[in-house]
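queue> pop job 88
queue> type: inverse folding (structure -> sequence)
queue> payload:
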């Protein structure tokens, strides 16, 4: 334990001093890049000090001579593989911080790094159900799931890096949690790396908290996410995954929640999934009235609750584990509801409306289907118009006018209904064999009950079925009989 404490203290001091020095040099020499591409503002090179500190600590540990160092040396291939993959992602992130990289370039490098980790031995080969503790062997699914996990967590940390101190603080919570879980399971390799990374983040945070003197940048957020995602996986040489499937999800609960909300929100609104916007959780907190520092502290609390839940899942078995997961899910949903997202508010309204009105909608669709059979059985314009009037009444229109060959031929008005001050009109063109024969105008009050029918089947019925059936009848009936058919 003394080795871990020494690593924590040393990495904290090194990171603090290195970050302070780097912030001054980067600011003085203009090593900055804002969103507009200008070399002004706060430097985004905090990932350099965090990565360098963690790397220095691991080198010192390997050169050390004690039990912890000996256990880490036994996992040297894994350590080198992790360092190599993290280094590649760090470099593309650093390039993006200084010059700007395209999303596909970063994703390609992340995929290559994740594949390297898989080859090295960081593989999700067995998933353990946290509720029944039964194991599921993944087989060929191991490769895509491992790559998806590593890339997703890496990008999740990058997405929440939008407020001073947020990504680094959430990363610190996740790192400490992984360290505690590794200690509980005697995973010295994971414990050593996480304690070194925790110290690096702890030393960096004083310079990154609001108002920030230096940002973590992509070189930091992408690399931290990848390393933590890899450390939540045990190597295939050591058996199943390090943790049950629910525990890593809890550890990275906040970043994954933000990714899930962003993906769902953009899907619902039809926006590109990879387009930048300012609608992430930390942005919404400020839009509903919280200060940047208050938003960060609130999200820290949420990250801490997710971390606590992951630790509880390790110690509690049986019915308690599903209850903990359920409570976390409810908490996440309550938090998202408070963000006042227009997409989710509309989805909620849509679901509620559909739940209440679906039977009425179905009833009216059945009415249209039956009306088609009734229409085909009619032999006069009056009978055909009677079928149409039944539909108008059922769908709560207040009046209808059918103009044929440019003349007002058929009219209908609902009994006992006064003309509304504001109404809207649906005009349906009538055609037969491709030739226009007239129009049907339906009127409905503006402030009426919601439409409980689908418009497309209504247009199809009158525009084609009704129009096609009434043309032969028009040829047989005199004009005066036709007008008489248009009564109420």
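queue> result:
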């Amino acid at each position: 334990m003394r080795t871990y404490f020494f690593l924590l203290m040393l990495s904290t001091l090194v990171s603090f001093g290195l970050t302070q020095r780097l912030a001054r040099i980067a600011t003085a020499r203009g090593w900055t890049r804002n969103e507009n591409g200008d070399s002004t503002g706060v430097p985004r090179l905090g990932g350099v000090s965090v990565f360098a500190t963690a790397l220095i600590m691991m080198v010192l540990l390997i050169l050390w001579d004690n039990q912890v160092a000996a256990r880490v040396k036994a996992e040297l291939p894994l350590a080198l593989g992790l360092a190599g993959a993290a280094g590649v992602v760090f470099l593309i992130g650093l390039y993006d911080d200084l010059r700007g990289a395209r999303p596909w370039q970063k994703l390609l490098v992340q995929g290559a790094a994740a594949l390297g980790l898989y080859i090295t031995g960081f593989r999700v080969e067995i998933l353990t159900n946290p509720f029944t503790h039964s194991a599921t062997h993944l087989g060929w699914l191991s490769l895509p799931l491992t790559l998806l996990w590593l890339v997703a967590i890496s990008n999740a940390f990058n997405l929440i890096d939008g407020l001073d101190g947020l990504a680094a603080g959430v990363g610190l919570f996740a790192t400490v949690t992984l360290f505690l879980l590794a200690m509980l399971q005697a995973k010295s390799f994971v414990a050593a790396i996480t304690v070194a990374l925790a110290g690096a983040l702890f030393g960096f945070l004083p310079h990154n908290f609001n108002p920030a003197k230096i940002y973590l940048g992509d070189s930091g957020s992408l690399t931290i996410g990848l390393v933590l995602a890899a450390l939540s996986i045990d190597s295939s040489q050591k058996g199943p995954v390090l943790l049950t499937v629910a525990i890593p999800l809890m550890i990275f609960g906040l970043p994954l929640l933000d990714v899930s909300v962003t993906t769902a929100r953009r899907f619902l609104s039809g926006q590109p999934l990879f387009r930048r916007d300012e609608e992430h959780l930390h942005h919404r907190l400020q839009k509903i009235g919280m200060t940047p520092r208050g938003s960060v502290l609130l999200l820290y609390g949420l990250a801490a609750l997710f971390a606590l839940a992951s630790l509880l899942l390790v110690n509690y078995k049986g019915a308690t584990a599903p209850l903990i997961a359920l409570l976390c899910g409810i908490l996440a949903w309550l938090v998202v509801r408070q963000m006042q997202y227009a997409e989710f508010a509309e989805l909620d309204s849509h679901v509620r409306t559909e739940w209440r009105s679906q039977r009425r909608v179905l009833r009216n669709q059945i009415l249209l289907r039956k009306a088609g059979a009734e229409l085909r059985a009619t032999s006069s314009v009056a009978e055909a118009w009677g079928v149409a009037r039944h539909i108008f009444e059922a769908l709560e229109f207040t009046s209808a006018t059918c103009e044929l060959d440019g003349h007002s031929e058929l009219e209908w008005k609902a009994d006992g209904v006064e003309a509304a001050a504001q109404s809207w009109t649906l005009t349906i063109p009538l055609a037969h064999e491709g030739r226009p024969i007239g129009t049907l105008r339906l009127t409905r009050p503006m402030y009426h009950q919601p439409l409980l029918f689908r418009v497309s089947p209504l247009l199809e019925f009158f525009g084609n079925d009704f129009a096609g059936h009434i043309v032969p009848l028009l040829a047989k009936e005199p004009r005066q009989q036709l007008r008489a058919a248009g009564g109420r």
